[in-house]
Amino acid sequence: MGTDNTNTNGSRSETFSFPALPQNVAELRALPEASLDSPFKTAALAVAAVCAYEKDAASVHEMLSFLQGPEPLSALEIQRLRDRLAGKGYKSFSFFAGATPENGYTPEVPYRITVSANPYSFSEENWATLYVTSGGADSPRPVKLRKKPSTGQWFLNELQCLADIRVPASADPWA
Fold first, then answer.
1. Could you report the per-residue pLDDT of 66-95, keeping only the tens digit for each?
2. What pLDDT sits at residue 141?
3. Is residue 174 part of a domain?
4. Segments in 86-161 forming alpha helices (H)
5. Looking at the domain assignment, is residue 21 inside a domain?
């Protein structure tokens, strides 16, 4: 369940808490956020889903395809996930509270993630660009979403937040 914080400048954030992260599409669909009735919920679920990548990439593909709605993952998107996450599973966990390079990006449990909007996040009708903050990056990272007007649901369009971050301190020869 998300908690909502709205600022006077039009910025807004919602924090979601998960007792466990989904490992497959059935677990993802069982979460209350899977109603996809807000872009914040969809963005939080997308980041939660990619945490399972190193255990089972195929399950992550299924979860992201569910979150993308009528347009399942393309071969290019699958390749992009592999390029960004293979051997770097810590990236996905870095978006959850308590995860830092010093602790190997081990988040606190329950897993808490904050999804934020800025004054420009909803500048185009039926589209949103929301942001998640990594413990290993200096600025928030985007997640692009698209609303399906006939259902009111928000679907993942592009998970743009998976660019490289600082490596865990245990893997950093300069740490």
1. 999 998 899 999 999 999 999 999 999 999
2. 98
3. no
4. 90-93
5. yes
